[in-house]
């Protein structure tokens, strides 16, 4: 099929330039007047056509200050405009657009568009998967680092906490008891007050392989260590 006018296939449906169609049909009326008259036949923007704004270059290559308006016409709209001309040229272009439409809607082209869409979707998915893989590789060392901290652990018993705060263990425990952060249960175990805990302690199930002792132990969290460090500094001051 010989090309009578440039057909744009970049969008969801093929379109032609309104200005090019007017010129091809040999219409002498100015483009703006002609197109306004065509829209009086009930053509709707964003359904039958879309407005295209572009800058126009002069012969010397400089760009003109004003914006030129063109319109991307759907093939059905272009066919109707050609039919309205009621002349041989209009008939010739209408028949051309019918062939464009038939080719566009042929089983082969429909299948090709479906495959192109599927391939584009797969490609986008691959890009997203690749991006997620990169993000995971970036985040994995950080996650491993924090897991390692928890393993080592950031939780410490009263003796280790007191050592880190540079105070005696008995003095530290007495401080916590006096300020109602912990108490001794009936078996003498140190337990946190529920209303004062707020992430300062964690009670963990413990097992000592050497002694075969098992039970619960109150451990101090990083938040607890920092909280008690500040409270003890304030108390000393």
Task: Provide a short characterization of the protein structure.
The protein is an alpha+beta fold and 237 residues long. It is built from nine helices and seven strands; from the N terminus they run E-H-H-E-E-H-H-H-H-H-E-E-H-E-E-H.
3D architecture notes:
The chain folds into three domains: about 15-105, no CATH class; about 105-150; about 160-235, no CATH class. It is rod-shaped, with a radius of gyration of 39 Å. The strands form three sheets. Strands 1-3-2 form a three-stranded antiparallel β-sheet. A two-stranded antiparallel ribbon has the order 4-5. The chain has a two-stranded antiparallel sheet with strand order 6-7. Helices cover about 55% and strands about 20% of the residues. It starts with 14 loop residues before the first strand and ends with a helix. It is of the alpha+beta class and about 240 residues long. It has helices at about 20-25, 30-40, 75-85, 90-105, 105-150, 160-165, 170-180, 195, 220-235; strands spanning about 15, 50-55, 65-75, 180-185, 190, 200-210, 215-220.
* Cα distance spanning the termini: 94 Å
In angstroms, what is the radius of gyration?
Answer: 39 Å
Strand residue percentage: 15-25%
Shape: rod-shaped
Structural class: alpha+beta
Secondary-structure element string: EHHEEHHHHHEEHEEH
> How is the largest sheet built, in terms of strand order?
1-3-2
Assembly state (oligomeric) = single chain
Main beta-sheet annotation: 3 strands, antiparallel
Give the beta-strand count.
7
Name the average pLDDT: 82
Number of domains: 3
In terms of per-residue confidence, which ranges show pLDDT below 50 for 5 or more consecutive residues? 145-152
Helix content: 40-55%
Q: What's the helix count?
A: 9
